[in-house]
Amino acid sequence: MKPPIQHNPAHSRRSFIENGLKTTIITGIAGIALLPGCGNKEEDEISPPEDLMREHGILNRVLLVYDHFLKMLASSQPIPPQLLTDAANIIRTFIESYHEKQEEDFLFPRFEKAHKLTNLVQVLRAQHQQGRLITDQVLQLGKQAQISTDGDKEQLVRLLTSFIDMYRPHEAREDTILFPAIRDIVSKHEFDSLGEDFEKREHQLFGKGGFELFVDKVAGIERQLGIYDLAQFTPKL
Ligand SMILES: [Fe+2]
Ligand SMILES: [Fe+2]
After folding, report:
1. How far does residue 167's CA lie from ligand 1's centre (Å)?
2. Any idea what the CATH number is for the domain that residue 224 is in?
3. DSSP secondary-structure letter at 78?
4. Quick check: 62 and 90 in contact, CB under 8 A?
5. N or C: which end of the chain has fewer CB within 10 A?
6. How far is the CA of 17 from the centre of ligand 2 (A)?
7. Per-residue model confidence (pLDDT) at position 46
8. Which residue pairs, CB below 8 angstroms and at least 24 apart, start in 108-111?
9. pTM higher than 0.85 for the full model?
């Protein structure tokens, strides 16, 4: 997800572009329009806020899946436990154990140390804990062969509704208040090293391409639920 931030000037983005241009000129002369490195993600840099925001994109897609489960429950359609488990496992693995852990380990302590947005951070921390408790219970329900009793269905409606109701404002507040403030409390050097810390953690947990892996996983669930095709959501006026 976050290709490495290169500190070696020889490998900086500017050098990459300059080298690419030189190569284009040389190869152009030779009649070969080849730009080495073009499309090589290793050369791009993703800033920490962009990285966190696109992880929120995956969270949002799971919230849409949860929304769809609620619609299915409201129209008495059965919820396949495996799909519920798959969706909740994306939250557990990618959001709670990775994305939120990054916020807790690398962001929140910096804001607390700087005495900035501390009330917000306190609420965000508490919501992470509540979210984990909800996911525990969703995963528990998903272990059953069927979610068929009225009690289980009512519990699932309560859990999914409270999860969605908490996380929409949670992530919106992080995107608009917390993440934009990161630059105010860290130096340029620390900002860059934050990106490296994020990348290191991602590679430790998922290898390269963790973000893409989870985008694929959520897309697979959307396909099985019939909500993958984006055009279906365009209103016909
Ligand atoms: Fe968070
Ligand atoms: Fe977040």
Report:
1. 8
2. 1.20.120.520
3. P
4. yes
5. C
6. 33
7. 85
8. 110/182, 110/185, 110/186, 111/178, 111/181, 111/185
9. no
Judge whether 42 and 198 are in contact, CB under 8 Å.
no
**Would you state the pLDDT for residue 84?**
98
Strands (DSSP E) along 94-228, which ranges? none
Distance 124 CA to ligand 2 centre (A): 9
Question: Distance from the CA of 237 to the center of ligand 1, in angstroms?
Answer: 37
Is 39 in the same domain as 112?
no
pLDDT band of 58, cuts 50, 70, 90: very high
pLDDT digits (tens, 9 = 90+) for 124-150: 999 999 999 999 999 999 999 999 899
Ligand 2 centroid to residue 36 C-alpha, Å: 36
Q: Which ligand is nearest to the CA of 58?
A: 2
The closest alpha carbon to 61, from 218, 180, 202, belongs to: 218
Find, among 151, 82, 198, 201, the residue nearest to 190 by Cα: 198
Contact 138, 88 (CB under 8 A): yes
Kindly identify the ligand whose nearest atom is closest to the C-alpha of 99: 2
Whether residue 233 has pLDDT greater than 50:
yes
Domain that holds residue 24: 7-44
